[in-house]
Design goal:
alpha+beta; 2 helices; about 35% helix
């Protein structure tokens, strides 16, 4: 099972500036919210207003399809 690392960068106000693997139909914040609600123990906060999700490739593909529907 291949894991994907999805990098997140935040603005000073805590909103999402950039996030990897984002479906074109979703905003950066909407994708972050969907990942946060749909995964458990996959997010790691990093310093400097950054973080990462570690998620199985199959789960990422499934979550993208949910937002494109």
């Amino acid at each position: 099972m291949e894991n994907v690392m999805i990098h997140v960068r935040f603005n000073n106000d805590g909103s999402v500036m950039e996030i990897g693997e984002r479906p074109s139909a979703a905003s950066a914040q909407a994708w972050f919210n969907h990942l946060s609600r749909s995964t458990h123990d996959c997010y790691e906060a990093l310093s400097g207003g950054r973080g990462i999700f570690r998620v199985a490739r199959e789960k990422v593909d499934e979550l993208k399809k949910e937002l494109q529907s």
